[in-house]
Design brief:
Elements (H helix, E strand, L loop, with lengths): L1 H16 L8 H34 L27 E6 L6 H10 L11 E5 L10 H6 L1 E3 L4 H12 L11 E6 L10 H5 L8 E8 L7 H6 L2 E4 L6 H11 L6 H11 L7 E4 L6 E4 L3 E5 L4 E4 L5 E4 L9 H14 L1
Parallel strand pairs: 1-5, 1-6, 2-3, 2-4, 4-5
Antiparallel strand pairs: 6-7, 7-8, 8-9, 10-11
Helix pairs in contact: 1-2, 8-9
């Protein structure tokens, strides 16, 4: 490429300046004009094209481009604080802390997903037929009061039938409420946790009272978490802090975030783990902490503190004592 440029410059100099002396000769002038214009017409385009190729090559350095979303995925309006499908929501909350109320709002309240967001909703809960809070779920969706692998297998087979026509495949929500502690580790639902996206399952919501009763596959694939309150079993809460805490500055900092998110009964800590950095919310209402970087948040006493991996907002000591007293009293 450089040689072509040098050749062009040499020829240009040779035919432009050297022939100036014999130009008095008619034959010499005619030959000069012929050769000069021949060279210019031939070499100038070649030089221009080769220069462009060199510039293009230099500019086209390797760049990582975003992979386009599959065309079959539908985009529907949804509040940014809610789990963004496809999502695996893991809800860990003791008995009588409002789990059924949260699930009912997610699926029936138009300010959340509402009844029209998903094409199909399947609820599996041992209390679906005797829990008054869940009576509207029972009327609106397909409900089962017991888990069976066949329910999940039939759903997967049905969704696989749309493999050649993904545009027509239903978008499904699957709710498994308080059943994880009663099923075996080899159950289909445990394998579904790592592959639910492939079957058009846009929301897989699983709730349990005991964190470690949830299989490691489900825990590691959870994109969102809800931790309810009050949480009388501090050891169980500690198990969550041991596993999730590193994303929010460690064990102690995670507990501070939890108590800051749950000052009142039925409040809950909501974690968006698919966000980068992960976010911690008071209910679904406001961000109270961010993992991975520092930011200012408001503590329960109204003060402003710095949150992040390095430091977390200090919860007033009197609040921590109250929580300990409540726990001892309930034991």
């Amino acid at each position: 490429m450089e040689q072509s440029k040098l050749l062009f410059l040499f020829l240009h100099f040779y035919f432009c300046y050297i022939p100036l002396y014999p130009m008095v000769l008619t034959f010499g002038m005619t030959l000069y004009i012929y050769l000069y214009f021949s060279i210019c017409i031939y070499y100038i385009p070649i030089w221009y094209i080769m220069s462009k190729e060199e510039d293009t090559f230099q500019e086209a350095f390797p760049q990582i481009l975003r992979v386009q979303d599959p065309p079959a995925e539908k985009v529907k309006p949804l509040h940014p604080h809610l789990p963004q499908p496809p999502a695996l929501m893991l809800m860990i909350s003791p008995i009588r802390t409002g789990k059924s109320t949260i699930i009912s709002n997610l699926l029936l309240n138009s300010h959340f997903y509402g009844q029209d967001y998903f094409d199909e909703v399947m609820c599996i809960s041992p209390t679906i037929y005797n829990d008054k809070t869940s009576r509207f779920l029972k009327k609106a969706f397909d409900c089962y009061d017991g888990y069976d692998d066949k329910i999940i297998t039939d759903l997967i087979h049905k969704q696989e039938g749309y493999a050649d026509n993904l545009d027509e495949r239903p978008e499904v929500a699957v709710i498994l409420d308080d059943i994880l502690g009663t099923i075996r580790r080899e159950a289909n639902v445990n394998h579904l946790a790592s592959r639910f996206r492939h079957y058009g399952i846009r929301l897989l919501l699983m709730s349990s009272q005991n964190y470690r009763s949830v299989s490691p596959v489900i825990r590691s694939n959870a994109t969102n978490m809800i931790i309810g309150s009050p949480f009388p079993n501090t050891k169980e809460l500690g198990k969550i802090a041991e596993e999730i805490g590193d994303q929010f500055g460690g064990y102690d900092n995670f507990l501070k975030i939890y108590y800051m998110a749950t000052p009142e009964k039925y409040d809950f800590l909501y974690l968006d783990l698919q966000s980068n950095p992960p976010l911690a919310y008071h209910n679904f209402e406001k961000v109270i902490a961010q993992g991975g970087q520092h930011r200012e948040v408001e503590t329960p006493d109204g003060a402003i503190a710095t949150a992040g991996v390095g430091t977390m907002p200090e919860v007033p000591k009197k609040d921590m004592k109250k929580e300990a007293e409540k726990t001892k009293g309930k034991k």
